[in-house]
Known about the structure:
This protein has 415 residues and is of the alpha/beta class. The chain has one domain. It contains 12 helices and 13 strands. Strands 3-2-1-4-5-13-12-11-10 form a 9-stranded mixed sheet, sandwiched between helices.
Amino acid sequence: MNGLTSASLLLLLLLLSVVSDLSFGFVAFSSSSSSSRRQRFTTNKATTTTITTTLETSNDEFRTWLRSELEHVPNRDTYSDVYEDSIEAIIRWRKRYHGNPKVWKRIFKKDRVVKELIESVPIIQSVKDIIMKEESSLSNNNNNTATDTTTEEEKYTIVDLCSGKGYLSMLLSEILPPEKVRKFVLVDKAWAIASPETKELKPHHMNWDHIYGEVVDVDTSSNQTYFTTWPIPLYTSKQDLKQSCNARQMKKHFFDKTPGPIILLAVHLCGTLSIKAVDMFNQHDQVHFLALKPCCLPKMVYAKRKEVFQIGTHSFPSEEVCSNGYFQGKKWNGPPRWHLEPKFQKWSHHLFQGIDLGTATSIIVQDDDDDDKSLVLQHQSPYGIKAKKEIVIQVDGGFQNTFLFAKRTKAVSRP
C-alpha cells in the first residue's frame, strides 16, 4: 500500500511538473503575444504620443500638429485669431514645463485640452473684446497716449467658477495684457485650501503643481515656483458654490474687498450651479461682466419636491427643466440626450431671464445672418446689456451651444 502510494505520489508530481511547464509556456507565449500587440499599438500612435505626452519634439513640430488637430473644429474661421492666440499660449505652457515632463503629461491631455479650448473660444473672444475695447477707449480719452499706467482700481480681476485645473484662465493669462488684469481666481471645491499650513495634498484634492509647484529647470538651480512664471497670476480658491456659507465668505473676503471691476467666467456649470453664477452677477455690482455657458440640467429631485427656482426677479417651476439623466464618467445614463434639447433651451432662457439688469428698453433678435452664424437675443437697459447667443461648438448630437453674456454699465436701483 505504501509502495503504491509512493508511486502514485511520484506520478502525480511528474504530471504536475509537465502541466506547470506547459502552463508556463502558455503564459510566456501569451505575454509575448500581448507585448507584440502593445508594441504594434504604440507604433501606430508613435507620432501623436511623442508629440503630446513628451517634450522631445520641437515646438515647431508641436505647433504644426496642434494646428492640424484644430483645423476642422466648429467656427474655426470665425474665431481664427483666438485659436491662433491659444495655440501660441499652449506653446508657452510647453516651454514653461519643459524641464518637468511629469507636470506636462498631467496637464496636456490632448482630447481634454482641445475640448476645453473649443468650448471656451467664444468666452475668450468676449473677454478680449471687453478688455481691448476699454483699452482702446482709454487711449482715445488720453489722446492716443500709452495706457500702461492703469491703477489697481482700474485693473480687472477675473473669477473662473468651477475652474477645474484652470485651462481657461491659463489660456487667458497668456493672451490678455497683464497691465489690464490684476489676477485670476480659480474657484473649485476640489482644490485644497491655499495656505502655508497646507503642506501636502490629500488624495481627493486636485493637483496644483502646474500653478504652485517648483520650477524644474536643468539650466538653473533656483527655487522659483510656477506661480511666478504666469504673465497674470493664477490663484486657487477652495469654494463649494452650493454651500450658502461659501457664498457669504466670498462676498465678505472677495467681492467686497476687490479693488476694480470683476469679470465672472462660468463654463460648463452643471445644474443649479448656473443659478449660482447668475446670482453672483446680480448681487454684486462690482461684477461688470458675466460669461456663462450652461451645462447639465438640474436633477429630478427638485421637481419631485415641487420647488420653484428663483433667479433675481424671475421665477419658474423646476419641473420645466429638471432631468433624470446624468453622466457617469463618459457614459450617459438616462433618456436619449436629444430628448433633453427642448428642456435645455427652456433652462437657458430662464437663466437669461434671471440676469437682472432692470427692465429692457430695447430687444433685438438677430438671426444667423451674423458673421459667426449664430442666433442672438439681446436685451438692453439703462443698467447694461445682456445677450443669449447660440454658437455651434457641439456637433454630432450635441446641443449645448448656448452662451449667456451680460455687461453692467451701472448698478441697478433696487427697492
